[in-house]
Each structure stands twice: as C-alpha cells, then as structure tokens.
C-alpha cells in the first residue's frame, strides 16, 4: 500500500527544538558532541561507512585507526587489559552476565542499580540478590551488604554468586560508593565484579585495576561525547577468553558481540571526541566543585539535595517543596516548571516534575549555571508575588 503525500510530509528532516538550550539533563550533558565529532558525524554517517576498510574484524581496522583506539588507547584510558566497543553500557553488562554465568546463577547488585542491569540479568536468565541502601536522605549503598548478600546466596544455593555488580555512580542520586572495599569483599569469595560506569567513564577518572573491577561497562552517548547508541566493555585478561570467545563456525567473530557492533558514525564520533574526553577527565575536580557550589546555592532557596554530601559527582537529585507547593495552585499545574524553564531556554528537567527531579552540571560552566540559578529564583519570586 502506497503512503499518501500527507503521510509522507510528517517525515523528512525534523529540527531539534532543544539543541541550543542550556542543557542540564544527566542523560545528555556529557554526551554533547564536540565540534570534531559533529564533523565526523557528517563524514562517516553513510550506513556502514567504516566497513569499507574492514578485513572481517571491525576492531582491527587500521585506517581509520579503530584498532589503535580499541586495543591501545581505551585499555590505557581505563587501565584494563582488553576493551571492545558495544552498542551501549547495557549491552556490555549483558555480554558479561551471559558469558560468565549459567542460567539460574545469581548476580548480586546494589538496590540503586539501573533498570537495565536488572533487565540484562533477566535476559541472561539469572537470579538477582539486591544489596540495600541507607534510605533517605543519602541513599548510600551498604558496602558491607555485599558480603551479606553473597553469604545469603551461598546459604540458599550452596555456591557463590557468579557475578557482582556495582553502579558507579548510581543514576538517581549520583552517589560514589567505595568500590575498592566492595571489590575486596567480592574477591574474598572469588566473585568477579562488574562496574557499571555509564555515568563515570568519560566524565571522571576510572582506573579499573585500582578500583579492583574485573569488568567495566561505559556509555559513549551518555558520557563520552559520542553519537549513540554506543558503549564500551573493559575486561581483565583472566576473563577475556570467556567474554570474547569466538564462534566455532565463523572463526574471527566474537559471539557475545554478534560478530561486530557499532560501525560508522557512532565509533567515529567517539574517536573524534576522545582527545577532548581525556582532557575533561583530567579536569574532574573542577566539575565536582561546580556541582557542590550549584547544590549549595539551590539549598539556599529551599531546594534540598538528596544523596551523598559533600557530593562527588555532577549528577544530583533534589527535593523542591517550594516548586511542589506552587504546582498545587499554578494555572499550568505540575507542568508549570518545565514551561517556565523552557521560556528561559533551559532544558533537562522532565515535564511534569516539580517535587523531585535530577539534573547534571557537567560541562555547563559557572556562567550558565548562574543563569539557571537566577532562573529558579525568578520563578519562585514570580509565583510568590502572585499570592
């Protein structure tokens, strides 16, 4: 059946309304493309463009320098033995779970784990044992709870979990937990540790060997200024032959990666942004200072930061009773805040959220952050004057 002309008019080029806004969305602040990546997006955007140079193994392409990037630069960047590109952090987590564990095995993970960690375990047909957090206001993971959870699995099944996972930082509160201690606990039980670094790799220093992580999952589109979906998986050499095992029929294809993963614009934008990513990781202390300063200023307005204090990450969760109170009476109800911010060219707090919301200060800069603060204050004053 042929589509009529009216139906086709809905498609074609669609402009992005928010592309020039001040963006405080945690999903997007560290995924914003560099100018070099924007050029790469146009240059390499045609289908399987890099496959013109592939001899059968994508990550061994020498020109463009994908092999040097994947097998040289990224392992050094993460201080881990082997790295592969994936379609995202969730695909990296699934690859580890599916290769390391057997159906019915347990994986231990923190209660603040991202839903994709849970779904990855379910897809691999694994059971899950959760490690609790401290509750409000900090929601910090109980580090010693990893030992408790492992002991519970041993008691219930007669054997240790196949894997443990820690979220670093968690995607709700931006808490940085003590991964080194968790790693020590897990390794005492011979349980390997998977670090979900979707909000870490590309924003802040991640040293896998120092942290004691056996596997690292990262996100290119969330945290490495790349066009997604794209991610990476780092693996210690002890597990590389298991996770990256090859097909017996297609001998140069790695099974967990379905032969090859991101090709074309995604990998080339990650490569294009990499020098900038390395530089900004080295300036992480300034990002933490900006986050703490911003949080302090919001708390002066009665908007309360939940989670770890002093905070150690750009992602933060706030409770805003002042905005919730306004939403009960405002003409636009709970959508008033989104619309007020949109009028001020600020994007990132989801439509309909007033009482609780999260945001990120990463790479926004003090000048723009001050504008966001001034905007919050002016919104509060506007509705106070209407009482």
TrEMBL record:
Which Pfam family, any one of them, does this sequence belong to? Answer: SepSecS
Keyword DNA damage part of the UniProt annotation? no
The molecular function terms of the Gene Ontology recorded here are: Sep-tRNA:Cys-tRNA synthase activity
- UniProt enzyme class: transferase
Q: Which residues carry this modification: N6-(pyridoxal phosphate)lysine?
A: 222
Reaction(s) catalyzed by this protein?
O-phospho-L-seryl-tRNA(Cys) + hydrogen sulfide + H(+) = L-cysteinyl-tRNA(Cys) + phosphate
Gene3D superfamilies, alphabetically?
Aspartate Aminotransferase, domain 1, Type I PLP-dependent aspartate aminotransferase-like (Major domain)
State the Gene Ontology BP annotations. translation
UniProt superkingdom = Archaea
List the cofactors: pyridoxal 5'-phosphate
Q: Which residues bind pyridoxal 5'-phosphate?
A: 89-90, 196, 219-221
Q: What is its EC number?
A: 2.5.1.73
Q: Which UniProt keywords apply?
A: Protein biosynthesis, Pyridoxal phosphate, Transferase
Q: Does the keyword Transport apply?
A: no
What does the subunit section of this Swiss-Prot or TrEMBL entry state?
Homodimer. Interacts with SepRS.
The UniProt similarity line reads:
Belongs to the SepCysS family.
Q: What does this protein do?
A: Converts O-phospho-L-seryl-tRNA(Cys) (Sep-tRNA(Cys)) to L-cysteinyl-tRNA(Cys) (Cys-tRNA(Cys)).
User: What's the protein here called?
Assistant: O-phospho-L-seryl-tRNA:Cys-tRNA synthase
Q: Give the originating organism.
A: Methanomethylovorans hollandica (strain DSM 15978 / NBRC 107637 / DMS1)
Organism ancestry:
Archaea, Methanobacteriati, Methanobacteriota, Stenosarchaea group, Methanomicrobia
């Amino acid at each position: 059946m042929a589509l009529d002309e009216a139906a086709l008019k809905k498609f074609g080029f669609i402009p992005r309304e928010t592309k020039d806004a001040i963006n405080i969305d945690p999903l997007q602040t560290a995924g914003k493309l560099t100018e070099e990546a924007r050029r790469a997006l146009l240059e390499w955007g045609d289908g399987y463009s890099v496959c013109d140079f592939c001899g059968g193994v994508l990550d061994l392409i020498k020109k463009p320098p994908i092999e040097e990037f994947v097998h040289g630069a990224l392992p050094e960047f993460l201080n881990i033995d082997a790295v592969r590109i994936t379609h995202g952090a969730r695909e990296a987590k699934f690859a580890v779970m599916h290769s390391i564990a057997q159906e019915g095995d347990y994986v231990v993970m923190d209660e603040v784990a991202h839903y994709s960690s849970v779904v990855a375990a379910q897809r691999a047909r694994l059971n899950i044992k959760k490690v609790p957090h401290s509750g409000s206001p900090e929601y910090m993971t109980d580090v010693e709870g990893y030992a408790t959870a492992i002991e519970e699995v041993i008691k219930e099944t007669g054997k240790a979990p196949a894997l443990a996972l820690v979220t670093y930082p968690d995607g709700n509160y931006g808490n940085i937990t003590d991964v080194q201690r968790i790693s020590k606990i897990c390794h005492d039980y011979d349980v390997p540790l998977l670090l979900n670094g979707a909000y870490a790799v590309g924003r802040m220093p991640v040293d896998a060997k120092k942290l004691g992580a056996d596997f690292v999952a990262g996100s290119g589109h969330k945290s490495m200024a790349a066009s997604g979906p794209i991610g990476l998986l780092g693996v210690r050499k002890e597990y590389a032959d298991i996770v990256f095992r090859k097909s017996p029929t297609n001998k140069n294809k790695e099974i967990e990666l379905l032969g090859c993963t991101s090709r074309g614009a995604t990998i080339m934008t990650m490569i294009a942004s990499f020098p900038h990513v390395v530089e900004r990781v080295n300036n992480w202390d300034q990002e933490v200072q900006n986050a703490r300063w911003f949080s302090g200023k919001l708390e002066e307005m009665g908007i309360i930061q939940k989670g770890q204090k002093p905070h150690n990450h750009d992602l933060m969760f706030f409770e805003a009773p002042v905005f919730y109170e306004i939403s009960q009476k405002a003409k636009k109800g709970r959508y008033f805040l989104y619309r007020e911010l949109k009028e001020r060219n600020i994007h990132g707090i989801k439509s309909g959220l007033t009482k609780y919301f999260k945001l990120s200060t990463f790479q926004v800069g003090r000048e723009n952050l001050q504008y966001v603060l001034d905007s919050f204050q002016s919104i509060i004053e506007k509705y106070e004057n209407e009482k």
